Amino acid sequence: MTKYKNIKNSDEVDLASLLIIIFDNKLKIFFIPVLTTLIMYGYLLTQPSSIALYKVRTEISPPTTFDILKYSTYNSYIAKESISDFRFSQNSNYDISSQSSSNLPMTKIDKLFLLDLFIETIIQDLYIEQPYQKSFFSSGIKNFKLINRDNYKDKTSYENAIINLVSSAKLRPAGGDNQNWYIEFNVEDGKNVIKFLKYLEKNINYKIQTDLEETFKSQILSQKKLKNFEIEDVQIEISNILENQIIEPGKDNNKNDQEILKIINILKLKEKSLLLNKKIIERFESIIFDTPITDPKKFIASKIITNQTKLKTITSSEISTAARLITTGLLTLILVFIYVILSRNIIRQKKA
Length: 352
Fold this sequence. Notes:
Number of domains: 2
Helix content: 55-70%
Order of helices and strands: HHHEHHHHHEEHHEH
């Protein structure tokens, strides 16, 4: 019993002695872990830092049935017209066959057509590389400060961050029928995301509207000119025949004159056909003018559903993460160093 008590007393450590040992080695306990931590922190400062990012996800939906009803006259007209082909020919060596269709861009405008245009335009906007072209996506990022300029040391770093953000954007169908899509992209500041999405929707729709209007107007003008040229050519041809041949309808003309009269009649039918197609073009122009294609305030290719937008944190700030790691590491080093010093002194006391 006495032997056990002596062993127990020899293993006991006086708390006061421990505190004295720690105090005597305070410089080692403090400076060595701190020096190690400072070296670690200095290394981190030399590394490129990543800023906190948020993933934005929102849906894109096609125009409503009521939006498509505004094209009902247009769709009915092109379904009725097709457009008709008028052909005139004869079995003689004098070939005057002609296809007098109006050659207009007769495409049915429905939900899928407009949605495809919207998706295609966003994709084109995301991949604009020419410096003279304006990207709505990158411009919106700057205007609504989705990337904080203060986080970057120079303009080049800031512009590269915008390029990286734009390249992070993804467009995917939300279902198998491709009737709904969603867009995902990353931002640094989520406060103005809704404003940015409304800005993007407005400008994409406006671009589609202006492109469609310009396309229709250009082709209509082109077809009008072509029809006028064709009509003029037929009229000149009739005039030349009449000038070279004296033909009086109703009188007894020879066989050759009768053949020429037949040609003139066919040319006049051709002229009438061209005039009819010119009228079709004019009607088509009037119908287009009554659709939202010529009114940017009414035109909607698709909508971004901003009230269903989701914002999710995907990375925390590297600086704050580093600070937590450094603090944890510092405390761990101090505790380990204290343990090593105490253990060494206890072993020395036992040996003594």
